[in-house]
Design brief:
There is one protein chain. With 495 residues, the protein is of the alpha/beta class. 37% of the residues lie in helices and 13% in strands. The protein has 15 helices and eleven strands. It has an eleven-stranded mixed β-sheet with strand order 1-3-2-4-6-5-10-11-9-7-8, sandwiched between helices. The longest helix has 22 residues, at 371-392. It is globular and about 65 Å long.
């Protein structure tokens, strides 16, 4: 039996029915990883022994009387930005190449409490700085649909491993598109939560006021199930919301008749590929056929989203990366002859070009004389963007638009282009700045218009659904309704 593209609920059923054990299921995925990961570079660390031990524990729990947790015995992957006790956590950077985490991130701990089975740690842009995984110190991940193209980023390793059937799902993070964009480019489903819905504790920080913890999986139903497990208040993270967490999975409702879906005209940006536009139009039409009311809306401040992000994000990156100084943890230079050289050479040797670029940009923006002119002003515009969303959500229940303006681009396009990420994520950044929940789900395919298209297959296109803060259930309902009448999420690359 092939397990690689079964939904979590299907895997739950065959585990509970004793048709397969967690050990057998885990071995199945580990064998696929050892055979296929070389083609995609999606995993940086594979946890063979740990996974087999955890699978055995899961089988023992399943054998006991009583109901099994949703994720019990289910293998999964973890973006290598999450701390995992006793297992290497690199953030895809040389500066943390040998770092062994002393504790688990809260999201990882919650899955462990359910006896989930971690297969390994996935590749990403270094410290999540990028949108293609090309800034990773360990080389880029490759898109399973076409290995000459990138899988997006920064959670590109997570999206690639799910798309290639090397894990049923993966924990991931998003700061300004890092879940929805790679999900779109690899034909997977991705969920970025309301800021504070999931604890950031134990996740290496990029930009603390933007970072959100979510997941990439094979379907929106899977995302709702995962969200039911990892969401909630965490006393160790003061930014988590205090409200009760619904069981998003059991509460899924695919009846969206009468739902008001706004379509922001500004999200059909100049330069959007025609094939992408057609797929998005078709996806929105399908939602209309399901009974939703489609309402054109305007978000004119969208054009400032990337500009605000280009100031806020590097500023917070600069602050967060100051802790990597060659003293407390991480890479320590062997060439220093003074304390100042320890700092300078350790950071110079450990950080890649993109991290250095963001540190220098952020330090400049936060320096005396420039803080008010740049960072403070950007935060004011950020507030205006949130206010604009709030006003639109008085007229509509959710928004529908494209997750990206193009399909996956050729490997190498991000190289030496410091603006690549801001352009690639321009349709995700405004809602990230506003802390809104969103999903990306497959809605069609389009022929690439960049690179060598002669032998290129049609590439996935992602439809994005955005809701007001704390409206995860509503967003999941729309996604589940769409996937109940389409099969785009069931189409997979030829492996």
């Amino acid at each position: 039996m092939n397990f690689e593209y079964l939904e979590i609920s299907e895997l739950r059923g065959i585990l509970d029915g004793k048709k397969v054990s967690s050990v057998e299921l885990t071995d199945y995925f580990l064998n696929r990883i050892h055979t296929l990961n070389v083609n995609y570079n999606s995993y940086l660390t594979v946890c063979d022994q740990e996974a087999k031990v955890d699978a055995q524990k899961a089988d023992e729990y399943i054998a006991a009387p009583g109901e099994n947790p949703l994720l019990c015995g289910i293998p999964y992957a973890v973006k290598d930005l999450f701390l995992t006790k006793g297992i290497r956590t690199t953030a895809s950077s040389k500066i943390l190449e040998q770092y062994i985490a002393p504790y688990d991130a809260t999201a990882v701990a919650k899955v462990k409490q359910q006896y989930g089975v971690m297969l390994g740690k996935t590749n990403l842009d270094e410290f999540a700085h990028g949108s293609s995984t090309e800034t990773s110190a360990y080389g880029p991940s490759l898109n399973p649909w076409d290995v000459t193209r990138n899988p997006g980023g920064s959670s590109g390793g997570s999206s690639a491993c799910v798309a290639a059937g090397l894990a049923p799902w993966s924990l991931a993070t998003e700061t300004g598109g890092s879940i929805r964009q790679p999900a779109s480019l690899t034909g997977t489903s991705g969920w970025k939560p309301t800021y504070g819905r999931v604890s950031r504790y134990g996740v290496i920080s990029m930009a603390s006021s933007l970072d959100s913890i979510g997941a990439i999986a094979g379907s929106v139903k899977d995302l709702a199930l995962i969200a039911s497990v990892i969401s909630g208040k965490d006393e160790r993270d003061g930014t988590t919301g205090s409200g009760d967490v619904p069981n998003y999975f059991s509460a899924l409702n695919t009846d969206i008749k009468g739902l008001r879906i706004g379509v922001p005209q500004e999200y059909f940006v100049e330069g959007m590929e025609e094939g992408v536009r057609k797929a998005i139009d078709s996806g929105i039409e399908r939602l209309k056929e399901l009974g939703a009311e489609i309402i054109p809306v305007s978000l004119p401040l969208t054009k400032y989203g990337s500009l605000v992000y280009a100031i806020v994000c590097p500023s917070e990156v600069s602050s967060n990366l100051s802790r990597y100084d060659g003293i407390r943890y991480g890479h320590v230079t062997k060439e220093a002859h003074s304390l100042l050289e320890v700092y300078a050479k350790s950071r110079g040797e450990g950080f890649g070009d993109e991290a250095k670029r963001r540190i220098m940009t952020g330090t400049y923006v936060l320096s005396a004389g420039y803080y008010d002119a740049y960072y403070k002003k950007a935060q004011k515009v950020r507030r205006l963007i949130l206010n604009e969303f709030n006003e639109v959500f008085k007229k509509v229940d959710v928004l529908a638009c494209s997750s990206t303006p193009n399909v996956a681009l050729p490997i190498g396009m991000a190289k030496d282009n410091p603006l690549f990420g801001y352009i690639a994520d321009q349709l995700n950044i405004p809602s990230s700045l506003a802390g809104l929940p969103g999903i990306s789900m497959p809605c069609g395919f389009s022929k690439p218009t960049t690179g060598d298209n002669k032998d290129s297959v049609d590439m996935p296109v992602g439809l994005q659904i955005i809701g007001p803060q704390w409206s995860e259930q509503r967003v999941f309902n729309v996604g589940a309704a769409f996937q109940a009448v389409t099969d785009f999420h069931k189409q997979h690359p030829s492996i």
